[in-house]
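Q: I have 228 residues here and want to know how they pack in 3D. Can you give me a structure?
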Amino acid sequence: MKLLVVDDDADMLAVVGFALRQAGFPVVSASSYGTALSTFRTELPDLAILDINLPGGSGFDLCGVLRKESTAPIMMLTARGEEADLVRALELGADDYLTKPFSPRTLVARVKALLRRTGHEGGGQTQAGELSLDPDQLLLRIADRDIRITPLESRLLQLLLANAGQVVHTDRLLVHVWGHRGGGDRQLLKQLIHRLRQKIGDDPEQPRWLSTIPSVGYMLHVRDKNVP
């Protein structure tokens, strides 16, 4: 579960991002139309929160493009509270509209309600070969063995499983696990990978499941349940 927050106000980005991360949501952010569109297409967030006034294009324009490309719920977060803006946003495909100023608790509650209402709450189980992840229960199953994992390990595995058999770049993992590139560093990611390998019993010198690609990132191997 990942959220995209788009606002040209750096302070607002920080406030919204902090509130959502405190509620357990990984967050990616953007401050312009072009960056937001690129980030959305790259990160594929489960929900987008858009300001209306953006450099390079309006939040209305962005909402229209995102709705054509995705069914992910969209919330407009703006200081403009005119009824005409609300009607336009809904006509473009927005699912909710929250006017500034707002309380962080209200924002988080509205985001959770929107995810429930649109059926996006909870990621459900993800599987690749003999590995199966249940992010709600924080359980990783390898064949018939259940392994208890942490929320950070779960986020890491979500992206690796979704891209099983492909190299996932370190920067992309940092964004997905910690919400933004400044939220984690490569040393923390190495420690997270190390702990996960210990839990699943994977040898980094002869990896069965998780390989390090030097100076690039990591790759989760796809192995059929019936192959030793």
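Q: Anything worth noting?
A: The mean pLDDT is 85. Residues 186-200 form the longest helix (15 residues).
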